[in-house]
Amino acid sequence: MSDPAADPPAELTPDATALYARALGEGVLLAGREGLDWAPERIAAARGQLAGLRLLRPSGPGRWVPASPEAAAAELVGPLELEIRRRRLEAERTRTLLRPLRSLYAEAHRERGRSAAVELLPEVGQVRALLDEVSRSCAREVLVSQPEALEGATLLDSRPRDLDLLARGVRIRTLYPHVVLASPVVQRHFALMTEAGAEIRTTGEVVDRLIVFDRRIAFLPDRSRPGPPGALVVREPAAVDYLHRVLERDWDHARPFARTPLGYGDAADGVKRAIVRLLAAGHKDEAIAHRTNMSVRTCRRHIAELMREWGVESRFQAGVLAARLGLAGEEGGPS
């Protein structure tokens, strides 16, 4: 049977305190002669608590003597402190054992960074760790294209990193599709980030996620396998420069974010223009929805509204009319 005093009580009840005071006054506590008008069960409970806290010690059958709180604490806490010291020594031995490998790892990591023009990170944890590392060393600019609104967990993960970059004077520019403006949550996030100094624009189409740090390293999603995508990390200067210039071109044709009370706001025409351009090119609804980062159902609703607005009965007529009106050109061009 286990010792009931092995696991001390979590608190000291008023009954236990009163019984302890009685024991101190008498110098001894005798079973059945406690001098308290309590039921036996109540006395036993208080006595058991004092024994668990090492404040009462048996000195014979039905006889207990009080111990000082200091002695009780030493008996209870002493083994814990010994275990803590043992754990600390074990931790320090582990650190000492691994310390010589730190410089080896750092040098290998630097060499890999210098030599690996393209690196594949299959695990999300690896991607986040490298993003944090590159963010800490970023000095000038982060340029991002984001094809969809970030989920809550991802926002919580990325927002502190972005705010830290802005606080250090790093310029952050992010490009989103117009359709994300339909979400009030997204608009609140955009407002918070722009107030902190970030620049956000929206456009008709965003192909996929791309992050470029200081024009020296780029992150692309790796969707070659099922499950959450990893990342392709590009360090080759010519390739990074090309990706940056492509993203810069899309940025130049995009619309600056302006908070609106409902829907796409000023970006509504941009949404229509993107749909019309793809309609005129002969794309099907599914392809248009994918390219404009919206659901097929929402895409078909927009197409139906355009056809009603223009008084045409077929997608082909809509495409022809769009070309004739100059609406099928690139966003930012003539309308």
UniProtKB/TrEMBL annotation:
Domain of life: Bacteria
GO biological process terms held by the UniProt record: regulation of DNA-templated transcription
Gene Ontology terms for molecular function: DNA binding
Domain HTH luxR-type, residue spans: 273-322
SUPFAM superfamilies assigned: C-terminal effector domain of the bipartite response regulators
Xref: Gene3D superfamilies: Winged helix-like DNA-binding domain superfamily/Winged helix DNA-binding domain
SMART domains the record matches: HTH_LUXR
InterPro entries (alphabetical): Sig_transdc_resp-reg_C-effctor, TrmB-like, Tscrpt_reg_LuxR_C, WH-like_DNA-bd_sf
Protein name in UniProt: Putative LuxR family transcriptional regulator
Organism whose genome encodes this protein: Kitasatospora setae (strain ATCC 33774 / DSM 43861 / JCM 3304 / KCC A-0304 / NBRC 14216 / KM-6054)
